[in-house]
Every structure is written in structure tokens, then in C-alpha cells.
Design brief:
transmembrane helix, 2 strands, transmembrane, mainly alpha, membrane
């Protein structure tokens, strides 16, 4: 815990350098950026990219699952028709489901 407290004290301490007898206060660039929030726009861009990626992935999964389910239903309908017509061998391949749209 002492190490954390020491780092906090070091961050809050004022850094001073002496140039030609004149004292100059200074900070690290990362401290200024963090204090003034200069990296917020950059962070917001990454958040927007993340949201777009998540939305795109969920849309892909939704569409893909609907396609797979509809193909499975069509296959079950064809099999039902084949069983009803008692088709065997090469005759089984002539049956297909046609939409009535």
C-alpha cells in the first residue's frame, strides 16, 4: 500500500527545473493529456468502432441462423413429400419445394 501512496504523491508533486537561475514548472505529456481529457475523442472513435463491429456480428449471426433454419425446414418439407409419394432412388431427386409467391 505504501508503494501506491508514494506513486500518488509523486504524481501530484510539482516538477521543477532550473534554467539560468529561473525555475520552470513542467509536467509529462501523458499527465497533461489525461488531466485535460485530450484523448477522449480518440477513445470515442474506438467505442464507435466496437459498437459497429458488435452490431455487424450480431446481424450476421441472425441472418445466417435464419438461412440455416429455412434450409432445414425446406429439406424437411422435401423429405415429407418424398415419404408421401414413396419415391426411391433417382426419383427422389426430382422433388423440390417451390414458393408460391
Amino acid at each position: 500500500m505504501d508503494l501506491i501512496e508514494e506513486r500518488i504523491r509523486q504524481r501530484s508533486s510539482v516538477r521543477e527545473a532550473s534554467f539560468g537561475g529561473q525555475k520552470q514548472s513542467w509536467n509529462y505529456r501523458s499527465e497533461i493529456v489525461g488531466k485535460l481529457g485530450l484523448d477522449n475523442k480518440h477513445r470515442n472513435i474506438w467505442i464507435a468502432y466496437s459498437i459497429i463491429i458488435v452490431f455487424g456480428f450480431t446481424a450476421f449471426v441472425y441472418v445466417k441462423s435464419n438461412v440455416v433454419l429455412s434450409r432445414k425446414e425446406e429439406m424437411e418439407q422435401r423429405e415429407k413429400i418424398r415419404r408421401e409419394l414413396k419415391l426411391m432412388g433417382a426419383d427422389r431427386k426430382v422433388v423440390g419445394v417451390v414458393d408460391s409467391h
